[in-house]
């Protein structure tokens, strides 16, 4: 068996499905809390989820997980069957969530390659205590202890049926007696015995057996194990036939003793259990398959390489100055198909945000309960899709933002009432598409941000570069994104350790997104995460400086133009600025920034590119524009990244002709400029 | 090769069963995640044998067994059950289940039960 379960796919599937089930469970719980009662459906669902986890984890030999699931399953079995009154919903929910957490924690360990060694016995005991408490309070439901009552009346009748129809012992005309021994470890010997009886009815009558109460009494298992299962019956088949029948039909038969008591039948019956007809074959298709993410990554990589190779062929220098009508025609077709392929692969990787959003429900629930605040979470646009890789990166930041909102933003009910606000705090989590980006907005109607305290804190930590009067509101708010900033004096269980918002900022930054904050004091805060749809391929403009090539994401380019000498202004610190339509922008000469040798140093000879990030714009001076191209982003090699943070570069890419182009990180450029880190 | 229809709401269980069965020379001709789908697929595939989970959403295994038996009384159906589902197995056996196996099962047991029910 171990050879099968040593297999990764099996483990992967177990982890994946268990995680899914737990998530489903949490959602049901949240729903239950909202309507404040356990409906029949939800009880059934939780029962089923726990049942599945129990079986799967037992198959994988994770006994601790299986046991917890089993205990909760038992609890819900009781709820389902007995429908007890006056359940303490809150306590029940806590128990289930605690169990879910345990299972999650253990599967996490398994994912990390550690041993699942958590001890759930304490939790199990508390669940069992709760169950016995329930049973005590609902005495009519208190059936035989430790034994499951029948499912419903139907099943009950059938049970009775099971034992009655064959239990009358004294038949005078029995002619056979058999003792059946089952293999050890075949489990549920009593039900197996029942199966034997049921099968035997095909060829025998007047059946009686010992022990009698095979179904009702689980002690019969031990008796059957030790003494065998004794059957007497009447049949007109021959000894040989009956022996064969029993040997064939009893699964896990270890030993069979068959005695003929007196001579019986003459008639020969024809066995009729032949295959009646050859079944026809139809293929059945599954409409959904699950694919390992690594395979998708690989596919994405390959498509990326394909896009590059395509450009290498189509823009091959050998083709220059040739008239190639047919070639161009085929090339266009190729371009069309690679484009479609790229879109298709991209769409495979797109996952709706709903699962991530739903997970926040749990956080809101747990925190609002602990902090005694009343908070509602509203989800908008959860069907919005983003790249799978991105989903993995935004889950933690979102969680942090929500925690912040509840902890720092939303006031307690009394305070809210005093302020004429609705008693319930509301947090809105919204996602929407805007062109190449997805916006995720976390909005709360709490107390909002206090500019004064942010400023004084920032001053204390030396985070303010500009003079304060120059700072816009947005800039002040974004100070809280900087490392080492936390306005909350005391550290709570959930947030306020001073590693909060800057981590959010870093995580979002890492996937090429931005964070912006808006707030009205006393009314609430709105934090917007702007996130690219996908990480891998971007539309870019390639520019050249000296021998070096740079790619600028198209989405951040505002315009390109030839500058005139008279537009250039030098500010008091010697920085070059350029005046356009009455607005002043910093001008960055790439050859100066990256110390590149170039002939083009005169501002009128080269080209200016105005780029923008988050409302901040600057102008980049380069020798010339090469053209627009889709590029596949590759991370900068480790030795460069490890050396130190390279300013203004987010990665590199291979161009069609095989040359390397550096991808400019406009966000980093504007930010460094603002903080005065970059000397122009 | 004998055609098997695997019925279980847990994808993990389906994968486990499938892996074991294919390794042992069975053809997994179809999978169903609940009883209703199982009945439909049974008609399409006409498998030689069915492994039937009991606890499933929409339609449970016992109900599916009964429905299949109405149009194919010879259907060979093996219940896959967990410990403690005795009443259901009992009901399934009464309704014509050929055998049953208890989770967590091992490879040897599973193959043995199926082979025996198939008369192999």
- Tally of DSSP β-strands of chain B: 5
Quaternary organisation: heterodimer
Distance between the termini of chain B: 11 Å
> How much strand content do the residues of chain B show?
15-25%
Any low-confidence stretches of chain A, pLDDT <50, length ≥5? 1-6, 141-171, 263-286, 493-499
How many domains, in number, for the residues of chain B?
A: 1
Our count of helices of chain B gives 5
Strand order of the largest sheet of chain A: 14-18-19-17-16-15
Distance between the termini of chain A: 67 Å
Question: What does this molecule look like?
Answer:
The complex is a heterodimer of chains A (680) and B (120). Chain A is an alpha+beta fold. Chain A has five domains: 2-149, HPT domain (Four Helix Bundle (Hemerythrin (Met), subunit A)); 154-260, Alpha-Beta Plaits (2-Layer Sandwich); 293-350, Orthogonal Bundle (Helix Hairpins); 361-532, Heat Shock Protein 90 (2-Layer Sandwich), CATH 3.30.565.10; 537-675, CheA-289, Domain 4 (OB fold (Dihydrolipoamide Acetyltransferase, E2P), Beta Barrel). Helix content of chain A is 43%, strand content 21%. Chain A contains 21 helices and 22 strands. Chain A has a six-stranded mixed β-sheet with strand order 14-18-19-17-16-15. A five-stranded mixed β-sheet of chain A has the order 6-8-9-11-10. The longest helix of chain A has 28 residues, at 8-35. Chain A is elongated, with a radius of gyration of 36 Å. With 120 residues, chain B is an alpha/beta fold. Chain B has one domain (3-118): 3-Layer(aba) Sandwich (Rossmann fold). Chain B is 47% helix and 22% strand. Chain B contains five helices and five strands; from the N terminus they run βαβαβαβαβα. The model of chain B has no long low-confidence stretch (mean pLDDT 88). Classes of the chains: A alpha+beta (680), B alpha/beta (120). At the A-B interface, α2, α3, α7 and α8 of A face α1, β2, α2, α4 and β5 of B.
């Amino acid at each position: 068996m171990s050879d099968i379960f040593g297999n990764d796919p099996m483990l992967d599937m177990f982890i994946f499905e268990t995680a899914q089930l737990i998530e489903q469970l949490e959602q049901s719980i949240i729903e239950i809390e909202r309507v404040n009662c356990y409906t029949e459906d939800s009880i059934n669902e939780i029962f089923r989820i726990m049942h599945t986890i129990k079986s799967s984890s037992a198959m994988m030999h994770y006994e601790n997980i299986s046991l917890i699931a089993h205990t909760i399953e038992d609890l819900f079995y009781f709820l389902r069957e007995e429908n007890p009154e006056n359940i303490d919903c809150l306590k029940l929910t806590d128990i289930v969530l605690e169990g879910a957490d345990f299972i999650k924690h253990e599967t996490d360990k398994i994912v990390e390659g550690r041993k699942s060694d958590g001890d759930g016995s304490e939790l199990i005991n508390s669940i069992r205590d709760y169950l016995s408490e329930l049973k005590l309070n609902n005495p009519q439901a208190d059936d035989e202890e430790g034994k499951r009552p029948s499912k419903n009346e139907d099943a009950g009748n059938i049970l009775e049926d099971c034992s009655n129809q064959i239990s009358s012992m004294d038949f005078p005309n029995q002619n056979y007696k058999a003792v059946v021994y089952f293999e050890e470890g075949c489990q549920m010997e009593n039900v197996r015995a029942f199966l034997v009886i049921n099968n035997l009815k095909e060829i025998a009558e007047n059946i009686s057996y010992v022990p009698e109460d095979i179904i009702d009494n689980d002690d019969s298992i031990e008796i059957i194990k030790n003494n065998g299962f004794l059957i007497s019956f009447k049949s007109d088949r021959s000894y040989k036939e009956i022996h064969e029948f029993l040997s064939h039909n009893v699964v896990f038969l270890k030993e069979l003793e068959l005695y003929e008591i007196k001579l019986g039948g003459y008639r020969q019956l024809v066995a009729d259990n032949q295959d009646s007809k050859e079944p026809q074959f139809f293929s059945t298709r599954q409409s959904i398959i699950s694919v390992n993410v690594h395979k998708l990554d690989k596919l994405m990589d390959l498509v990326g390489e394909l896009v590059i190779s395509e450009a290498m062929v189509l823009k091959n220098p050998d083709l220059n100055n040739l008239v190639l009508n047919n070639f161009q025609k085929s090339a266009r077709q190729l371009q069309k198909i690679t484009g479609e392929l790229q879109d298709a692969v991209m769409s495979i990787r797109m996952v709706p945000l709903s699962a991530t959003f739903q997970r926040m429900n749990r956080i809101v629930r747990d925190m609002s309960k602990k902090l005694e605040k009343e908070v509602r979470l509203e989800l908008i646009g959860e069907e919005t899709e983003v790249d799978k890789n991105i989903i993995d990166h935004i889950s933690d930041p979102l969680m942090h933002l929500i925690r912040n909102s509840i902890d720092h933003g939303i006031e307690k009910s009394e305070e809210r009432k005093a302020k004429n606000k609705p008693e319930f705090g509301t947090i809105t989590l919204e996602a929407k598409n805007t062109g190449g980006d997805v916006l995720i907005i976390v909005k709360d109607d709490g107390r909002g941000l206090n500019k004064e305290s942010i400023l004084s804190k920032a001053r204390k930590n030396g985070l303010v570069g500009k003079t304060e009067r120059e700072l816009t509101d947005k800039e002040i708010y974004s100070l809280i994104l900087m490392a080492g900033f936390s306005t909350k004096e005391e550290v709570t269980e959930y947030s306020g350790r001073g590693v909060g918002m800057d981590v959010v900022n870093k995580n979002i930054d890492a996937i090429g997104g931005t964070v912006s904050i808006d707030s009205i004091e006393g009314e609430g805060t709105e934090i917007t995460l702007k996130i690219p749809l996908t990480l891998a391929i971007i539309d870019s403009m390639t520019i050249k400086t000296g021998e070096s090539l740079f790619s600028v994401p198209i989405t951040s380019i505002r315009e390109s133009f030839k500058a005139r000498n008279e537009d250039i202004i030098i500010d008091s610190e010697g920085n070059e600025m350029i005046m356009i339509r009455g607005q002043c922008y910093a001008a960055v000469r790439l050859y100066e920034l990256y110390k590149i040798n170039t002939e083009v140093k005169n501002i009128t000879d080269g080209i200016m590119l105005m780029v923008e990030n988050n409302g901040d714009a600057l102008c980049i001076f380069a020798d010339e524009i090469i053209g627009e191209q889709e590029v596949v982003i590759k991370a900068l090699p480790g030795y460069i990244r490890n050396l130190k943070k390279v300013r203004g570069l987010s990665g590199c890419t291979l161009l069609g002709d095989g040359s390397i182009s550096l991808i400019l990180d406009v966000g980093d450029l504007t930010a460094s400029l603002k903080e005065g880190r970059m000397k122009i | 090769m004998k055609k098997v229809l695997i019925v279980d709401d847990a994808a993990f269980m389906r994968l486990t069963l499938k892996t074991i069965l294919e390794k042992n020379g069975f053809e997994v001709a179809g999978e169903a995640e609940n009883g209703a789908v199982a009945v439909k697929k049974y008609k399409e595939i006409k498998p030689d044998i069915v492994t039937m989970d009991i606890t499933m959403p929409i339609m449970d295994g016992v109900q599916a067994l009964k429905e299949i038996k109405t149009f194919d009384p010879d259907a060979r159906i093996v219940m896959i059950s967990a410990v403690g589902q005795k009443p259901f197995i009992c009901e399934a056996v009464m309704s014509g289940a050929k055998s049953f196996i208890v989770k967590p099962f091992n490879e040897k047991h599973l193959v043995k039960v199926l082979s025996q029910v198939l008369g192999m």
